[in-house]
Structure formats: structure tokens, C-alpha cells
Amino acid sequence: METAIKSQTKLSNPAIARPILSGIITGQVAGLIMAVVVMLVFTVFLGKNPLYPVQVIGSAVFGESALQGLNIGAILAGLVLHQLGPSLLWGFVFGLIASKQSIQTTQSALKVGLVLGVIAMVGPYLLIPAVMKALQGVDIWNREVPIFWDWAAHLVFGASFILYPAIQRKLQ
Description:
172 residues
């Protein structure tokens, strides 16, 4: 009970809550920037439709049928999974770090963001294969997304945290 009260007090403290909220919002923006970049990569370099990578994420729910034509259900599922999964998680983690390290400059936000982008590769290497194999019997994500572009996308995601100081200022 005492631990719950301490946790609630910490999150109600504006000095801690504001950086966490700013991190979450920045994570959502970074996730959208990442998605747009990956859509461009799939269109320009891989010859797929721009929504294909979102459909690949949605294949966790819909399986191989997600990749057939323009599957609106898979697109919506992919967007929701991406934004409410890794984008939310890593934005929250960034906010926690920011609440402890007082990230105020774009340079410090960029450094922490890039480290987070690299750490976030735990998804494609460990988490996604396990989830895909459990749900679909095959790791559709790593079959369909070249690892080079996955790394590039995660670095773009991390670099997008450069927006954190501006977002934090808007929330004050």
C-alpha cells in the first residue's frame, strides 16, 4: 500500500509527470515519422505500396492475408499496434530518463533518442520473432523487412526525439 501511494505521488509530481507526458507525446510523433520514412523506403527502394509495412505489422493479427492487396483491417491493426506498442513504450522510457536526467537541449535529446533507437531493435531481433511465430507460425516481419531498413528506421525513430525539448516547452 505504501509503495502504491509513493508511486501515485511521484506521477502526480509535475517535475516527473511533465517529462513523462512529453516523452510519450514525442514517442507518438517519432513513431509516425518512422512510419512515414519506412513507407517511403518501401515505395522507392523496395517497389511495394506505401502502406505495405503497416500491413506487415498488421500481419501479426491477420497472418499472410494481411499482405494480399490493400487490406484495410491489417493497415488499421498495424497502425494501432505500432503506435500503442513500441512508440508508446519507448516514449514512456524516454520520459522516465528525461525526468531523471533533465533533458533540455536538442543535442541531449538526440543522444538519448539514438541510444533508445538502438535498444528498440530488441523488437525485431527478439520480441517480434517470438510473437509472430506464436501467433502465425512464421516471422512475417523479418521475412518481409530487410534488416538494414529496420535499423535505419529505428535510428530515424531515435533521432526524432530531437523534438522532445520543443514538445516539453509546449506543455508548460
